[in-house]
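Hey, weird one. I pasted the SSS family transporter sequence into the form twice and got a warning about non-standard characters only the second time. First submission, copied straight from the form history:
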Amino acid sequence: MLATCILLYLVFTLGIGAWASRRIHSSQDFTLAGRRLSTGLVGVTIFATWYGPEFIMGVPGYFVEEGVMGTITDQFGTLLCLLLVAGFFARRLYAMGIVTLSDFFRIRFGERVETATSLIQVLSYFPWIAAQFVALAYLFGVVLGTSVPEGILLGATVVVIYTFIGGMWAVTLTDLLQSVLIVAGLGWVLVEVVGETDGILALVTDRPAGFYALLPAPNLAAWSDYLAMWMAFGLGAIPSQEIYQRLFSARSAEQGRGGVVLAGVLLFLIGCLPLVIGLAAVELQPELVAAGDGQSLIPNMVSRYTSLPVRILFFGALISAILSTSSGAMLSPATVIGENLIRPRWKGITDRQLLWWTRMSVVGVAAVACLFALNDSHIHGLVVDSAVLLMVCLLAPLTLGLHWKGATTNGAWAAIGLGAVTWFMTDRFDTVIDPTIYGTLASFAGMGAGSFLGRTA
């Protein structure tokens, strides 16, 4: 019964993609939904894109073992990121009338920087998309009994089909449906499992000393790790195309900006539900934690110890979260490939041709992500890896290029190169201070020095 319901849901999702395809008449319809999204839709689609399997299958495992410190990267970092985007980036970038962040880099620093930043963005998405495919494989293994490779290929096929057909319209409509399922599914599971315990208050108060500590131990290594956790998404995800693709899809700058803030609030609040469910799982079935696989903590508990209706709704919610994140993650690099790598090099390309090649880019991105997924099955690690490259290469050129008139093309190149090299070298030497901190500081220093020296040379 559970497997049948999941399969029917997958078919229904494909049906939404087919229906949404009727609204695709141009490349802008495909990539930005015709710039017709409201504040609510912008917020919901960012929420659904970012509320991926790490919130349900990754973070709860860290939370029950490490306390609040295990949630800094996802729970707090995503909120920080979206508030910063809404406050310092959204209005100015929307006013430029662009489609991708690489469009900004072209306007501000030239076509060569556009190409370099486009390649960096595309590369950064592969591990993130791979994480979603791995999560789908875990899910299908529990529900359908498939192997990990089979689950990866099945999940990738479903997401590719409806994203290929419906583009941003399909992503938005399925995100709306999937957000409702996520909240309903997690809410029902929470009510049922907490009912088997002494209540939420007992779960959250009966914790070891230091469980809710918001600051690390007073030593250099601990503070380095702590800052790196905040930076991973809090700063690293700021140059992410999927945020701005939804921002630029809004009817106005203010509606887009409001949607970004709404997404941050939703992610933080609804992100608390799996954490409480994880505490209940530890209380009711401690052997699940002893097994050492935090990624399967909640799915295994739901599969073994809840009623069939709850299992159907929970796994529907989980698959919804993964599908929405996968589709949004694939559409973003495909848009960059079409707009910033293909269009500038194909003089005279028609909008119809651009639409076709953007759709084909969805397929290509998915194929490469499958290779990543088949070689690394750690969800949380894959997701964090995807943000590091953006932070050490693109955060400085984006931030200073947008807010500092003195930023130059030489500075952008220095920021990209110095940030990447510094991060890579310090990572190889296993430094006490986290390599992402070195890389990010080096990138900002390179931006400043390169811009200043370029003007005085």
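That's the output from the first submission. The warning seems to come from a hidden character in my clipboard, not from the data itself. Residues 187 and 273 are 7 Å apart (CA to CA).
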